Each structure stands twice: as C-alpha cells, then as structure tokens.
Amino acid sequence: MNRKLDATVAAALYNNRALARLKLQQWLAASTDAAAAAGLRPEWHKPCFRLAQAQCELGAFKQAIATCRTGERLLEKVCALAVQCGGALLSSSGAWSSRAANAMGAMRCVHCSC
Question: What is the CATH class of 3-111?
Fold first, then answer.
C-alpha cells in the first residue's frame, strides 16, 4: 500500500472509533481519535463533526464552534463538487448513488433555510 492509502485507511479507522467512543460517552478518547483522523485527512469533514461533538461534551464550546465551522466549509466543498459532477455521480442504472444522494441531501441542508 502507498502512504496516501495508508493514511486514508487509518483516518477511517480513527473516525469510526471516535464515533464508537462518542456513543460510549468517552468524550476525551473520542476527541483524540477524531483529531487523529482529521490530521490524517484534513480535507475530510466527518472527523471535524465528531471532534466538535466531543469538544462540546467536554465543555470546550468555543473550540467546538470553530471545529464545526471548519467541517461546514469542508462539506460545502464536497457538495459543490457533487453539483459540478452531478452527471458523473449517476450509477449505471441512472439512479443516484447513495454517496451522491447523501452529498446532495447535505448540500440542501447547508444552503437552504430548513
């Protein structure tokens, strides 16, 4: 495996463990794992939201807001790409892939008043 793939896999593992630790209310451990995932894949929005949730639970509200805003900016980039490449996100059957549907749904939430 190359280093980029190793970092991608490691980030996914840290991110998944952060989610598990959030569900177990292990806030400090969750924040450590989410921060590790974000460090390995700084362009990925998911670890930011996990880290912000852990920071909030730890009472670090200003940090949580800043982290969440970083995640929002990253998500907006993903959603903009989904809109630009909308035709490419169609599956061979012509239906939206689940990833495309998730990205488009997130875009609507970020950009509308709901």
Answer: mainly alpha
